[in-house]
Design goal:
The complex is a heterotetramer. Chain B is an all-alpha fold. Chain B contains three helices and no strands. The model of chain B has no long low-confidence stretch (mean pLDDT 84). Classes of the chains: A mainly alpha, B mainly alpha, C mainly alpha, D mainly alpha. At the A-B interface, helix 1, helix 2 and helix 3 of A face helix 1, helix 2 and helix 3 of B.
């Protein structure tokens, strides 16, 4: 019983973080800020939910941990790939941005 | 009955996930540039993996976890392939 | 010698993944897994790793699991509370920008770990890595100076990683 | 619990329909490929709800991995934007 309660708490935490990730996707002004909020929150939300399922059914825990590790390793890599692709296709930073050190580096490469 | 009722928690949880899917869908339709849509697809992919795991919980069958595992690996390659294409490296 | 070490390392990693995927330990499955992972390792070792067996030394593995992993999880929880604050706040308190930092790590594996950890921790995410320079999008820029930013963003993890890597 | 799965089915079928409309109406073929990836992702969940995990695995593998790769390859040969 107590074990199911702990699992449900993990599930709810994961659900809230995934909801916040999508809210950030909707509210933030440019691609980079969207990626900031959504990648982090969705990674922890997904891991927390899957851990909750693993706690409710302890026999499934090894496979759940494997899925969690896959998500933990692959999500930052895909975020990094999308971010670099966005910069190279010429998506501008938000107008309130403070500095952009990456642009000069790209110009050096072109010459 | 192949599944078991866990009370209010599961209803709240599914509601939150469905709102998340809906917001990502809005960003997918409205996104001004292609990278926005790729980000939305990435988020939808991760949420789909979680939904597959939670469906395994609802139906109480361990074989459903394998679908989530296959999905987690392959959808990642799809997103990275599209990102590499946008970058011009593919 | 180097190539043998790389091949063995790849085969061991594939074999561990096989066991985790199959889930049961029976001798026929173990033999099949060993055969498959050895054959796959022959073809993929040269793109899978450059370091070889030295990545698998007990010190690195044990320190990584006991020392670095809980720290990473704790940083992720902090990052998510930060994200929650920024998303829910009606005025969107953001101050973004791309900064350049330098990392002290040398091997590719350590650089990958640092870059991925930066992506998962509060307010930063890695756009590109070139040599020992990293370009980082920071949601709340506190310093544009390279040295100071290097101390604030990757320095946190490097202090932790330096003790058992490189 | 049946109600719950029904509710989930309604929400996901909305996603399916909207993604199909995006594929149909978009002039940018890359967006159409992304839309087809989303369609296959939701179809995989539907096969799981209909209790066919083997079909769901096949849909996940072919829809997410293979189709995207082949369509990207074709798009590289054919050009990204559709002419009117």
């Amino acid at each position: 019983m107590i074990q199911k309660t702990i699992g449900e708490v993990f599930l709810i935490i994961g659900g809230i973080f995934m909801f916040l990730a999508s809210l950030g996707l909707l509210r933030m002004p440019d691609v980079y800020n969207r990626m900031q909020t959504s990648t982090k929150a969705v990674t922890l939300g997904a891991m927390s939910s899957i851990l909750g399922v693993g706690i409710i059914h302890p026999a499934w825990l090894p496979k759940c941990i494997l899925i969690m590790l896959f998500i933990l390793f692959t999500n930052p890599v895909s975020a990094h790939a999308i971010g670099r692709a966005a910069y190279r296709t010429g998506v501008k930073l938000w107008k309130g941005s403070v500095c952009d050190k990456y642009g000069s580096c790209m110009e050096d490469e072109d010459e | 009955m192949p599944y078991e009722i866990y009370g209010l928690t599961v209803y709240v949880y599914v509601g939150l996930i469905m709102l998340g899917v809906l917001f990502s869908l809005v960003r997918f339709v409205a996104g001004p540039s292609a990278p926005d849509r790729v980000v939305a697809t990435d988020i939808l992919t991760t949420i789909t993996t979680v939904v597959l795991v939670v469906l395994a919980l609802f139906f109480k069958r361990q074989i459903y976890l394998d679908v989530a595992l296959v999905y987690a690996v392959l959808a990642f390659t799809a997103v990275v392939a599209i990102a590499r294409f946008l970058e011009g490296g593919l | 010698m180097k190539s043998l070490s790389r091949w063995l390392y790849t085969a061991i990693i594939f074999f561990i993944i096989w066991i985790a995927l199959v889930g049961t330990i029976r001798w026929d499955e173990l033999v099949t897994g060993a055969a498959v992972s050895i054959i796959l390792a022959i073809f993929t070792a040269h793109i899978f790793t450059t370091e070889g067996l030295s990545n698998l030394s007990p010190k690195k593995v044990i320190c990584g699991i006991i020392y670095f992993f809980p720290y990473l999880i704790w940083q992720m929880i902090k990052a998510n509370l930060d994200v929650a604050y920024r998303v829910i706040h009606p005025k969107r308190p953001i101050n973004p920008g791309i900064v350049k930092v330098k990392t002290k790590m040398h091997s590719d594996l350590a650089k990958t770990i640092v870059a991925n950890s930066i992506t998962l921790t509060p307010g930063t995410f890695t756009l590109d890595v070139r040599g020992d320079e990293m370009y980082i999008h920071w949601i709340d820029v506190k310093s544009q100076d390279v040295e100071e930013a290097s101390e604030m963003i990757p320095g946190v993890f490097e202090k932790c990683l330096m003790k058992f890597m490189d | 619990m049946n109600n719950l799965i029904l509710f989930m089915g309604f929400g996901l079928s909305l996603v399916l329909v909207v993604a199909t409309f995006v594929v149909w109406l978009s002039k940018d073929l890359l967006v159409a490929i992304l839309g087809s990836a989303v369609v296959s992702l939701v179809a995989s969940i539907f096969f799981l709800i209909l209790q066919a995990p083997d079909v769901a695995i096949t849909e996940a593998a072919i829809g997410a991995g293979l189709t995207t790769g082949i369509l990207l390859y074709a798009m590289k040969k054919a050009g990204r934007y559709e002419d009117d």
